[in-house]
Amino acid sequence: MRSFLTFVLCLFLIGAVIAKNKTIFYESHITSLTGEIKMLKFPGPPNYTSINDGDRDETGPYLILIAPIDIQSNPHIQANDTTEKQVKLIQVVVKHKRDWDKIKEGNFVEMSGTLFHALTGHHHARVLIMAEKVSVMGNKPAETSAMQLTKEDWQFLEHENLQNWGRL
Fold first, then answer.
1. Rounded-to-integer distance, Cα 153 and Cα 32, Å
2. Is this structure's pTM higher than 0.85?
3. What does the pLDDT look like over 125-143, one tens digit per residue?
4. Superfamily for 21-167?
5. Which candidate, 37, 60, 30, places its Cα nearest to that of 135?
6. Where are the domains of the chain?
7. Is residue 56 a contact partner of residue 45, using CB atoms and an 8 Å limit?
């Protein structure tokens, strides 16, 4: 019995090591990510606090990843990019007009591009992707539910005054 428990504990520890998040680097590295497109609404200018109090609506596309990733600065570029852990929510910057027809609520996509850290008040996720290529893979699989966002993503969204919690 004791050897069986030891065996089960070893399997659990091996699984924990294998389950470590994938680490991806910021700009200059082209990366490919898979997830569901969500259109989210945030308050914009002038105060970035409340659409009901007169701020403009900033609605845009976001990619909710199947699994969280960790993002680090590119070691070959001098940059002050912040390392981010447990990222599942990425704001999408659509580079090519032709890709807009693929950026629809609920589409399950594979997206290639470069990642960069939030820089301005118009950036409503910790990390953004400059989408170079978007391929629709079909409808979303059940495991990409937005309710599975990481604690870190939810904390950021609370800080950003997300206006449409019910749509997530």
1. 20
2. no
3. 999 999 999 999 987 655 5
4. Nucleic acid-binding proteins (2.40.50.140)
5. 37
6. 21-167
7. yes
